[in-house]
Amino acid sequence: MIGYTTIGVNDMERAKKFYTDLFANQGAKVVIDMGRIAFIGTKRGEPMLAVCEPFDKEAPTPGNGVMIAFPVGEKSDADKLHARALELGGTCEGPAGQRIEDRFYGSYVRDPDGNKLCFFMFG
Length: 123
Description:
The chain is α/β, with parallel strands linked by helices. The chain has two domains: about 1-55, 2,3-Dihydroxybiphenyl 1,2-Dioxygenase, domain 1 (Roll), CATH 3.10.180.10; about 65-123, 2,3-Dihydroxybiphenyl 1,2-Dioxygenase, domain 1, CATH 3.10.180. The protein is built from two helices and eight strands; from the N terminus they run βαββββαβββ. It has helices at about 10-20, 75-85; strands spanning about 5-10, 30-35, 35-40, 50, 70, 90-100, 105-110, 115-120. The strands form two sheets. It has a four-stranded mixed β-sheet, with helices on one face. Strands 5-8-7-6 form a four-stranded mixed β-sheet, covered by helices on one side. It starts with a strand and ends with a strand.
């Protein structure tokens, strides 16, 4: 259902490196680069994350309550992505752990521009 999600960033090169390095194990690369916006994913036609300098030339700001959640196959993947995001300059918003009894496992970070991310699995 989702084609792509766009987040505003201050530094395009830093953002492209952060996300391609973060998801390198899943084959992430810059699929389309149009200067002020770049689409990161595995290939065209699959869901992608777009990083961009805002069209209105105003400062990018993360939305209050806005978060992008990335599914993982194993709980250890949520741990690894959380740690990798911190290595790449992200900040911790909640360490990996079981939440909502045994139905949800997740970890939370903010990227270098303050956008909130979650790495999760149900069960």
